[in-house]
Every structure is written in C-alpha cells, then in structure tokens.
Design goal:
Structural class: alpha+beta
Oligomer: single chain
CATH superfamily of one domain: Histidine kinase-like ATPase, C-terminal domain
CATH topology of one domain: Heat Shock Protein 90
Subcellular location: Membrane
Largest sheet: 5 strands, antiparallel
Main location: membrane
Helix content: 40-55%
Distance between the termini: 51 Å
InterPro entries: BphY/WalK/GraS-like, HATPase_C_sf, HATPase_dom, His_kinase_dom, HisK_dim/P_dom, HisK_dim/P_sf, Sig_transdc_His_kin-like_C
Pfam family, one: HATPase_c
CATH class of one domain: Alpha Beta
GO molecular function, one term: phosphorelay sensor kinase activity
Shape: elongated
Order of helices and strands: HEEHEEEHHEHEEHEEHHEE
Strand content: 15-25%
CATH architecture of one domain: 2-Layer Sandwich
Number of helices: 8
Radius of gyration: 45 Å
Amino acid sequence: MINKLKKKFVLINMILISIILIFTFGAVYISTSNRLVRESNDTLQKTIEQENEILKKQINIGEQNVDSLPPQPQIISFAVQLDINNNITNVYYNNIDKSDIVTLNTLVNSALANANLKGIIQNENFRFLKYPNEKGVKIAFTDRNLEINTLNSLLKTFILVGIGSLIAFFIVSLYLANWAVKPIKKSWEQQRQFVADASHELKTPLTVILANADIVLSHKEDTIYNQVKWINYIKAEGERMTTLVNDLLFLAKSDANKNDIVLSKVNFSDIIWNCVLPFESVAFEEEKLIDSEITSDLYINGDNNRLKQLVCILIDNAIKYSKERGTIKVTLTKVQDKAVLSINNEGEPISKEKIPYIFERFYRIDESRARKKDGYGLGLAIGKTIADSHNGKIAVKSSKAEGTTFSVAFTLAKNT
C-alpha cells in the first residue's frame, strides 16, 4: 500500500508539474508570437509610409533588370506601388538584396490573389499589407525568417528545458514521496503493531477464562461454592479484559477525534488531592510513602474526569515501579502561567534509549516486570493523549541519582 501511495504521489506531482510547464511555456510562446506579429505589422505600416524609391522609372512585371540594382543587405521589408492595372510603378525599401528581387513579381501576384488586406504568403515566409491609394494599391512586404527562426528556437528551448525540468522534478518527487510517506508508513506500522499487541493482550485473559470455564464444566455436579475459586478467576480476567477494551476504545476515539471532552474551569489542585488520598492506602500496603506538596487553588481549563484519570495513571505508575520502601513525591507548582505537576519515584532509572518510546502503546520497558505489575503498556499512552487533548505537555526525566520524574504542564485559566 505504501509503494502504491508513493507511485500515486509521484504521478500526481508529475502531472501537475507538466500542466504548469505547458501553461507557462504556452503563455510565453503565445506572448512572444504576438509580440513578433505586432513588430511585423508595425514594420509593414512604416514601410507603407516611406517614400524611398529604388527606381524612379516605371517597372513592368517581367522586365526587371536585376543586374542594374546595387548590392543591398538582406531583405527586412519593402513596398511596391501598383497602378490601377496592377502594374508595378515604384519600389520602396528598407533593405533589399538584388538576388531576392526576382521574387518580387511572385510576391505581388500572391498578395493580389489574396482577398484580405493583410496576411501571410509564399509558404508563410512573407507577411504583406495592402494600402489602396489614389495611384492604385501600395503593398508592403516583410520577411518572416526572423519571426519563424525566433519561434522555432524558442520552441526547441522549451522542449529541452521541459525535458530537463521534468527529469529534475521526477527526482525531487521521488525524494519528496519518500519523505511524505514516512509519517504514513510509521502510522501504518504502528497500527499493525497496535492490532497485533491488542490481539495478544486479549488472547491471554481469554485463554484463562476458557481454561477456568472448562474446569467448572468438568465438575458439573459440584456446587457453586466449591467452584468459586475458578469463577473468581473468570471474573478477574473478565474485569481485566473490560479495562483493556475500554482503554483501546478511548485511544481509538482519540485517533478519530471523537472523544467527548468538555473543557471548563476546574481546580487542578483539588483534582490532584482527590487522586492522592486514595493512593495513600495503596502505597501503605506496599510499604511505600506518598509525599505531597500541592499549591492550592490552581485553576486550568479542562475535563475533570480526564484530568483525574491522567493524575491517577501517573501516581499508580510511580507506585508500581518505585523501589521497596520508596517515596513517591507529588508536587504541584505554579511556574509563570503554567500549572506544573511532577511525580517522582525512586525506582530503577529508565535508560535514555527507551525514554522516547515510553508513551507508545503497549510499550514496556521490562516485559516480564510489566506482566507482574498487571500492566498492558497503555497507561502512559492514554496519559499523553489526555495531556495533548488539553494542550498540555508531558515529559519524563530519569537518572539513578534523582529517580524517575514525570511532569505535565497546563496553561492556567485566566483570572487565576
């Protein structure tokens, strides 16, 4: 799928570039052509208006003495005066070559055969302009070689530049395609890994449930009291599955931006106290201590339930991975316009190589330890999702000397 997407990206990009080049080159070509036509018409008009004569005597068609003409530069434009019988009486010129004057009769006849006052004749090599006057008709001619050569040269340049540009854009498009699909490729791989991990996590409790159900069914004659151990195992695994499914549903809704989060002004200090107090008994049972230092009445805009879920995830995580008889420090302080929550434990530090991955779904620093701690590797992923949905920033620092500290910062509500 990724390769198809890359090919489609390159194809669309090349089509767009081709269209842009065609329109750009076409506009330049048409503009240049129109400019050359205007210059030719201006030259014809000026030639019509000039009065320089090559010959002052009447020149009859078929009686031109070519050798009597002095050598002249290459033809740019010239004009002829015809009488009412279409006989040439005068020749007016800008530049004329005697070797080309032999074409004069042919040009005049071609111009007269054309019903229009102006146009192109002689295999499109000459442009003419007729001007009726009291003597008859005056016809101006201009050589189109410069015009034709300019357009042909421009066309060749466009073809070469176009081919070169398309090759260059193709190479750039390949690079951009690889760069553009990197996030998609990563997301696709994460999605596949997510499905695989979710299936694996659901498989374990399902296996336990089915195994315990088989045990119960194998002792059909026993009372519920005698089977209560197996039933409790089924219930416990069912509850674990419910928790896992709810977490997966929350993350799926977050990905689709469908989580119902209602932001309102809430007392973040009270939310943290309401999370700390229940966990004190949990910590006490594990012979650990929660040390709290919470600044009062810090208000932020957020969803009360989601913020409580975030704080509980971080405290629960700190208790689970704190060392024996360790201390968990929960601190809430005001830093400029931010309410900063920090939760520190004295457990084993997280290596720098693993810190960038701890907020990924189903990621476990220690697979065996996570299983013993009854974790799925979704808690921190959910915590980060909640923080992001509140425009907060969550971070972690870990060292052997200071332990592991998770911190999350939210912008204080106004008038705090």
